[in-house]
Amino acid sequence: MASLCLILQRIHEAGPDLMRGAGHEVRLAGSLERAALLAEIAGARAVLTRDALVDAALMDAAPGLRVIGVHGTGVDNVDLAAATARGIPVVNTPGANARSVAEHALALVFHLAKQIGPGERAVRTGDASFKYRSALTELEGATFGVVGFGAIGRETARLARALGMEPLVWTRRAHDPAVAAAGLAHEPDLGRLLARADIVSLHLPGGPQTRHLIGRAEIARMKPTAFLVNTARGAVIDEEALAEALRGKRIGGAGLDVFAQEPLPLSSPLVGHENVVLTPHVAGSTEAALRRTATALARQVVEVLDGRRPDHLVNTDVAPRLWPEGAS
């Protein structure tokens, strides 16, 4: 039976094409304005979102909703408890954009270490003295702190090691066999990792457990020359504390692709510092990653609509109700 699949924010056309090919109707939401969206979602059996909020009210406005798809890994924009209570599976696409995000994390590191932005501005403004006053950093042998070791953290660590850096990994598990399997050093104490690392790269999901994981006390543990990079979720860092540290040059710099509020307000204290690089949550937005992510998401949405259990079910508590034979 054909189902309406409502896409809240545009995704690569490979995803809609796959859903249409499976016989479903696909529509891009006309507006994310609340009243309009509550009306438009009414007939949807599938909702696909990037970072737009999907809460209980939206779910209740679509009584036939059978699946919520999240384009990417983080699902903090979906009310998982509400979805589970209503028996609605939530699917995501872990790993689909891992390579692109890992590359972006390293691009931010290179931008900071080689002072690409200030150097580029020096050329454009005729500042010949930049060459003699700049302090550039060689990365070979640097301790590369990886905070979080999911698909993106693993790929970032792999690329950092390939460049001659020495990854040091912290996860929320005291003993993580995935780190050992990758042949990397594991540091179970976050404070010690922060004190040892020349670069700290964050790869954690959002949510209450990770909110402001990197705050004033944690930033104070970092080396005065260290770089902090975040391609995960903005709220993992206390942005006020980071802005203070950047202003006081208490760390070497920061590279940020994500923020607590997006788009980042121009009034943010993070704007205006020369020792910070800011990009607008585009780490996973390469052509290749967008195609992979949209395709992986659409495939899982179709699986659920066809009555099959998807590969990446986030709220596994719904499984016994929907797929009792394979709910383990």
TrEMBL record:
Keywords of the record: NAD, Oxidoreductase
| Record InterPro entries | D-2-hydroxyacid_DH (IPR050857), D-isomer_2_OHA_DH_cat_dom (IPR006139), D-isomer_DH_CS (IPR029753), D-isomer_DH_NAD-bd (IPR006140), NAD(P)-bd_dom_sf (IPR036291)
Q: NAD: present as a keyword of the record?
A: yes
Instruction: Please list the residue ranges annotated as the D-isomer specific 2-hydroxyacid dehydrogenase NAD-binding domain.
Output: 106-283
- A Pfam match is 2-Hacid_dh_C
Similarity remark: Belongs to the D-isomer specific 2-hydroxyacid dehydrogenase family.
Write the protein's name: Hydroxyacid dehydrogenase
Organism classification = Bacteria, Pseudomonadati, Pseudomonadota, Alphaproteobacteria, Hyphomicrobiales
